[in-house]
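Hi all, posting the design record for the shared folder.

TITLE: backbone redesign
STEP: 1 of 1
STRUCTURE INPUT:
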């Protein structure tokens, strides 16, 4: 892969790593990777690697934090110290705390939490290797792990990052593209059945036309990724699907 070069597209319009404008990096999903957990998943998205473990629903402690109307999702996004070029301090930083907050809120839109009042559902996601897009990689893993834990869900959370680099709209930005002088990074997560957006962040300017165009690209990608998520879950629970 070409690194540290200030170009983003070749003459044929291919990106620096050979991808097309709206081509995602390869995605691999696995469910049921941690026996100790109630549900777990592992996701590779290009170089990104995330492992998620779900514990619960279980008693909320401290008790005064319990919600009598529904379960509370506590989401812990963490980057392993060895996952990035400059050692990551293992102490959770502001970035990890912010990502945990917005991702937990996104998952809470998908899970039927009213069925488990007063309980906690703890979702731990560790990034083992990172190259931009890790919050979405983590969220895919967390969503699969929740389903693997048997938590009823109205939909899976699917997501992608879209944006801009080198003057063009692109999807699934790599670190090289996120660092472009004109980069716009727009991680987005959806419930693909209803098109409900459950996470959206944006760190640069887009025109309304660009925004609408790239949103449509993201919507399509989310549906494709959701199909992959469903496939891997069906495989995991194939005996329960009666061949359906
Ligand atoms: N990154 C890093 N060190 C850090 C945090 C992030 O090297 O402490 C890198 C990592 O490759 C990450 C990328 O910067 O994927 C982009 O980070 P961002 O905050 O945009 O989140 P992400 O795109 O991973 O969701």
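Okay, here is what came back for every position:
SEQUENCE:
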């Amino acid at each position: 892969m070409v690194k540290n070069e200030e170009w983003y597209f070749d003459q044929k319009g291919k990106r620096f790593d050979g991808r097309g404008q709206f081509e995602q990096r390869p995605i691999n999903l696995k469910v049921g990777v941690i026996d100790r957990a109630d549900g777990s998943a592992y996701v590779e998205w290009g170089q990104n690697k995330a492992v998620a473990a779900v514990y619960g629903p279980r008693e909320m402690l401290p008790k005064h934090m319990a919600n009598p109307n529904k379960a509370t999702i506590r989401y812990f996004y963490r980057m392993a110290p060895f996952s990035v070029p400059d050692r990551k301090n293992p102490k959770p930083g502001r970035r990890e705390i912010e990502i945990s907050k917005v991702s937990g809120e996104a998952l809470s839109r998908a899970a039927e939490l009213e069925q488990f009042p007063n309980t906690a559902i703890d979702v731990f996601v560790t990034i083992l290797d990172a190259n931009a897009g890790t919050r979405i990689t983590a969220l895919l893993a967390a969503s699969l792990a929740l389903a693997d834990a048997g938590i009823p869900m109205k939909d899976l959370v699917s997501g992608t990052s879209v944006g801009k680099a080198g003057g063009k709209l692109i999807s699934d930005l790599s670190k090289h593209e996120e660092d472009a002088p004109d980069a716009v990074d727009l991680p987005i997560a959806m419930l693909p059945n209803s098109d409900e957006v459950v996470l959206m962040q944006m760190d640069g300017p887009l025109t309304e036309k660009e925004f609408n165009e790239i949103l449509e690209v993201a919507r399509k990608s989310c549906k494709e990724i959701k199909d992959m998520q469903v496939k891997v879950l069906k495989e995991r629970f194939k005996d329960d699907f009666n061949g359906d």
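COMMENT: The chain has a mean pLDDT of 95.
Let me know if anyone wants the other runs.
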